[in-house]
Amino acid sequence: MTRIVAGAAGGRRLAVPPKGTRPTADRVREALFSALDADGVLGGARVLDLYAGSGALGFEALSRGAALATLVEADRTAVSVLRRNAATVALPGVDIRASRVDRMLAAANRTPYDLVFADPPYAVDDDELAAVLTELAAGWLAPDATVVVERSTRSGDPRWPSALVPDRSRRYGETTLHWAAFAGQRHS
């Protein structure tokens, strides 16, 4: 079990898929969301949570004032857990997409997002992650969007496309959060 750290749904417990996911530790989420709060990113934000797993990042964003959280997950068991967690959290603005991340991003129906979380399984290699980041920058981001990638500390920095400007990295034991800011114009 994991829990929502703060906000309207603070303290509510989230189920975690039995295998295949690696939920972001409460202390890492707390640090991440404290920084996002300080940056003024969350209020009314449209959030895209890629490789959502339990949905902890998207649900935390909604709990702290985001308007919409689109949770993208391919694993059927995890999608079932996401649906149960959405009922538990009981906040408006949840949009669950049962899809592989690359397929969802290849779709023509693109919605601009203000904040993107990408927490791929460690098995996702650097080339696949770079392709996802490139696709995001090619039409999924609102002006001044923030992208946060969570990776194993051993993985090194993501290969950001030129439209995503690296901002900072923070290490939390075996987990590192990499931040970038969108420096491009939204494409239709």
TrEMBL record:
Keyword field contains DNA-binding: no
Origin superkingdom: Bacteria
Origin species: Actinokineospora auranticolor
Keywords: Methyltransferase, Transferase
Membrane-traversing stretches: none
GO biological process, one term: rRNA methylation
Protein name (record): 16S rRNA (Guanine966-N2)-methyltransferase
SUPFAM superfamilies, A to Z: S-adenosyl-L-methionine-dependent methyltransferases
Coiled-coil stretches: none
CDD domains found in the cross-reference section: AdoMet_MTases (cd02440)
GO molecular function, one term: methyltransferase activity
Pfam family, one: Cons_hypoth95
